[in-house]
Amino acid sequence: xxxxxxxxxxxxxxxxxxxxxxxxxxxxxxxxxxxxxxxxxxxxxxxxxxxxxxxxxxxxxxxxxxxxxxxxxxxxxxxxxxxxxxxxxxxxxxxxxxxxxxxxxxxxxxxxxxxxxxxxxxxxxxxxxxxxxxxxxxxxxxxxxxxxxxxxxxxxxxxxxxxxxxxxxxxxxxxxxxxxxxxxxxxxxxxxxxxxxxxxxxxxxx
Length: 206
What we know:
- By secondary structure, the chain is mostly beta strands.
- 13% of the residues lie in helices and 58% in strands.
- It contains two helices and nine strands, in the order H-E-E-E-E-E-E-E-E-H-E.
């Protein structure tokens, strides 16, 4: 009787030891209970060269800051000004519509200071339409889409951010829009890739 009991006891101790060790070891997490998460939203205006013409892009972002330093969110922008390009027919100008959006990542440098730096990066996709506004004789009809193409976009930037209040910041800076994969007869990815001067109004819990 003693031998079976001894064997059962050894098996129990072997099985119990790993369980005890696992119970005693602290579990590691990316975000701890002490992690400070704050939500924010922005209204952005970008002055940029679009197909050899100065244009305005208007958009917004939203997300969270982690311990005041890291940024995670989403953002999107659209062309707000009238931009025309030459179509396949050299005698006809086409109206350009479009925008882009995607994942927003970033880093704040010295965020506790009144004036600090922010380095946002947007990675995503967009779409461009070329439309003929004179295709239909009836002005109430919609424009006729001549071409449409999607594209990949990556836009790193830098902002000089000023803490106006504990819920409102203003940022002034620049970014560069990398566009790739545009497929159109008279437009290339380089026509949409360029620098932007940015004005950002940021709201949230800081």
